[in-house]
Amino acid sequence: MNIVKIKKFKLCPDLAYLTGVIIGDGHLANATKSKNDKSADYKIVVDISDKDYSKYLTNLILKFIKTKSRPKEINQSSNRKKRYCMQFRNKSLFYFFTIDMEIPKGKKSDIVKVPTAIINSDSNIRLNFLAGLFDTDGGFRGGTLGFTSASKKLILDISVLLNELKIRHMCESWINKNYNKQFYGIRIKKNQIDKFLNTVPFRNFEKRRRILNRFL
Question: Which pTM does this prediction carry?
Answer without folding.
Answer: 0.93
